[in-house]
Amino acid sequence: MPGGRRGPTRQQLSRFSLPSLQTLVGGNVSNGTGLRSSSNSVGLSAPPISTLITPEPVRHSRIPELPLDSSFLFEFLLFLYLLVALFVQYINIYRTVWWYPYSHPAASTSLNFHLMDYHLAIFISVMLARRLVWTIVSEVSQSSGGSLLRYVVLIAARLSLLTMCGWVLCWTLVNLCRNHSVLNLLFLGYPFGVYVPLCCFHQEGGKSQASGSDCEYPADHQPADLVESPFFRPRDFLFLLRENIREQLSSPPHMPTHTCPQHIHSDTPELIRAEVEELKSDFNRRIKEVLFNSLFSAYYVAFLPLCFVKSTQYYDMRWSCEHLIMVWINAFVMLMSQLLPPSYCDLLHRSAAHLGRWQKLEHGSYSNTPQHVWSESTVWPQGVLVRHTRSLYKAVGSYNVALPSDVSHARFYFLFHKPLRILNLLIGIESSVVLYQLYSLLRSERWNHTLSLGLILLCNYYVLFKLLRDRIVLGKAYSYPLSSSSSGLKSQ
Question: pTM of the predicted model, to two decimals?
Fold first, then answer.
């Protein structure tokens, strides 16, 4: 064996090896951050992980105040769009070959007006105007003030408007009952019959599930049902129906607030999780409102007129069904852009950044890496391994207070940790619709298709313009580099 100086043996290397993370962090189990050790020897005591490894502060970008349509303007534009879509559907159903000589009986007008049911058209128009009417009534109620005479006039105007709408609905329903069968009449109230059992009882069940979760609501936001009893109690059906109808007709309530914690306390994780629970409930309520109203609009605009067409009347079924899908998508995008404005999405993004996420690992992986016991009062930094409910998790975010086994927390972080995710999704949907309609317009050979696509495209251009404007402004705002002086830790 050649001569020379021999290197140190394994025993010598083990003596002078670097201290492990277990020695640096310690095994303080009282704070819930103890390490999982493979030996039975007692390790050195050390401060908890929250005092040794400070999580990086979450820095938020400051976005400008983008203009948002008022409730009255948005409801008016939505109602105008739905009327145009209803007119387009009637063109697709009752069109004629109007370029024939006037001696031909079917070519005297461009549409078969004698086949239309005007009572049905009026009934659909009133149903589509329900949000606009309620918005007018709500804004008038909020602005009621001043002299007694003005208050009486406003009350009389509200009662007159609601009475007129109710009288028109009753008048149209009576005439529809005289001229149509019972099966056709059932289609008039089908959305309400589906909404009541699904949404009402689902909301009640959701509240009962929320009572058993680990996160608690603040005292001023705690639901009355959870205060009275932790168990599920069936509520009065009429009261539940009235509350849900009021929720659909009224404008969205005040936007929740977000407070960025400047200093980490023992109750900071619990406050963040409670805030996330409140934001989840508000977001689910808004999504439920968007889905119901978009499907409601598409049903009454594009589907209900098809149910009252006579069996001898011919119409293009494929084009009518395509129009139904387009109306639903456009109404969905319009409602999403109004009920989920950029300021609200930024609020969800800030909360998701403080919540963090955990990645579940397989058993046996990272066996030589220190593993902690998850604690609900600890803010975990990125890359830390914790054990919770016999599973191993790795901290993904820079600020992690989420419950590792809670799927809703992981879903909340996935949706909102990127602030432009929802806006990009809406732009992709609306751009695809516009491109498809332009392609259909170039290939259209019938006059009703050309007119229909031209009218609908005018409405879609306005929606796409607003989305692209917000995307350009927010893209520059979020891409602006954050400095330590403008870390955005101030609460907004």
Answer: 0.75
